[in-house]
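lol so apparently i was supposed to do this last week
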Amino acid sequence: MVKLQEANSIIKIGTKYSMLSAAVIGALALAGCNQSTEQANTPAKTEQKNEGHATDKASGDTVTIYSSRNEQLIQPLLDEFTKETGIPVELVTDDSGPLMARLQAESTNTPADVLLTVDAGNLWQAGQQGLLQPIKSEVVNSNVPEKYRSVDDLWTGLSLRARTIFYDPAKVQPTELSTYADLADPKWKGKLCLRTSKKVYNQSLVASMIEHFGAKKTEEIVKGWVANLAAPVSSNDTKLLEAIASGQCQVGIANSYYYGRLLDENPKFPVKIFWANQGEGPEATGTHVNVSGAGIIKNSDNVEGARKLIEWLSSDTAQGKYASSDKEFPVKEGIDESDMLRSWGSFKQDDINVSIFGQRQAEAVQLMDRAGYE
Ligand code: FE
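anyway here it is w/ fe (iii) ion bound
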């Protein structure tokens, strides 16, 4: 129902949208209803149209962002960008799937200039769907290491999140832990919690394992995980971490920032973080890291403003704040991490290009299905 209201509001924005047909609105509504919400612990995502910011590009240089990031966390940074550059920013917030469906439906009529979303798998999908154009920025290329950028320059990472192992320190010693693959060992039978395989985060993790270890070995690992499950798969990472805290399971895999949010609420939250795949040897591929990132919309009519905003978000000025606003790691090297992140210790990251998470996404989804990972 909310999505229908959104669709109606699109028509109200201006004559630019009057050509949207009822069929397109129906498709938008369906696309919206089929999406699950990404985060459990954040306020409901709502569309925000800042009054006073004209959507009509002819009258100004407003940069319109379609964002799946938490509006309350991103808005203060965007205000700072506007203050520094004089470029007004308009923020439209929704989940990644509905935003991409909307960009498809709006086509050349879109008011959007920038797509801001999480996971290289989602950014890659946006590129595949023809929604983005090359960023072409020397500033971004020098600020962001190549492995966190699209191989065809269609998007760039702006912050990092580690997807790693969490455990109950009352029952598990860190010396018992090592790799994602080790969680398939029968010693973890009835002790492992996993989030649903429908979530892009797990698709990206499995895609990276296929890249490192091949499909055959990865399928064996995923089957082992499924055999070790202590409970049905969780709908989100927060519930998974709470299941470890409550004793329902002893180990699990989750994104680092969800843990950071729980520690913010309760510094004594009884779960510990373990950096997976460290050390030496063929399994020591480094901990899986993914990005939040941005791309310039193919049909943007303010490409220059869009590029400036992405460059600014990748700069020294913004990187620390952008990353720490949601307990993430900066993508630019040499930027200070927050105290909480430093307290988790340093770790070796997986070095493969994050584009691979998208390239192998379909393969990963099929593999998890064959392995019985729901
Ligand atoms: Fe998330």
